[in-house]
Amino acid sequence: MNASSRPLEQLSLLDEHLAPRDAWRVRPSPRARRLAVRVLPGGLVEIVVPHGTRPRTIEQFVSRHRHWIERKLALYQPLETAPADGLPSRIHFAASGQEYEVEFVETREGPRLDVGGGFIRLRGDRTRPALLRHVLQRFTMREAHTTLSPWLAGLAAANEFRYERLQIRRQRTRWGSCSRSGTISLNACLLFQPPPVVNYLLIHELAHTRHMNHSRRFWRLVERLEPRWRELDRALSSGWRAVPSWALD
Questions:
Q1: Terminal Cα-to-Cα distance of the chain (whole angstroms)
Q2: Global pTM?
Q3: Residue 224: closest CA among 212, 198, 206
Q4: Taking a C-beta distance cutoff of 8 angstroms, is the pair 78, 245 a contact?
Q5: Strands 36-40 and 90-93
Q6: Which pLDDT belongs to residue 222?
Q7: CA distance 122 to 103
Q8: Fewest 10 Å CB contacts: which of 83, 104, 121, 199?
Q9: Is 114 buried (19+), middle (13-18) or exposed (0-12) by CB count in 10 A?
């Protein structure tokens, strides 16, 4: 029986000491030539396997990479423990300095969010927390547009960069990217990072509008605009710990 037909929960590789059972995913891929493992922010462990891979082979692969998985999980371990329903009582956007206390109002009507006076009033059915988290995620996306769009435009104008457009996304693997057509994509979760770290990431992506690589010329340009880039890049690598679990669902 191959990994694609065997129920995931039957695989003994689901080690609760490494990650909760629902944080493991085995994904057969027709393009995979060998087994690979990824640990994503939020603590999701994904094993990518060629079709037809035997469960025992997967278990042996995970055992060999156990220490690497442990180190990655520690890197992504959230700084704050999430409540059982995943709904926050407080939201702090470090990038903008905005902070909100979250008040929950029980109602059977569709979920809704009201903002004012440093409070977020989240209305909805608490027995359906996924819907309520989705409302908070949409709010985060709007706040990211409000904060990051003028920030990026200001840096571009001050340093004579040109880009075609900005899009805000919510990703588990990238903080930002720049396409050859000049579209810059930024992760809404940048809102949970300190301003110097965000500023560095914006400079990094703007530099890609001139150098679509990580060549010496690219890094010289980045260093001219942000001499502390090495320190800030390390901070960004561990910045996933500051992203609350509800923002990553």
A1: 31
A2: 0.78
A3: 206
A4: yes
A5: unpaired
A6: 98
A7: 6
A8: 83
A9: exposed
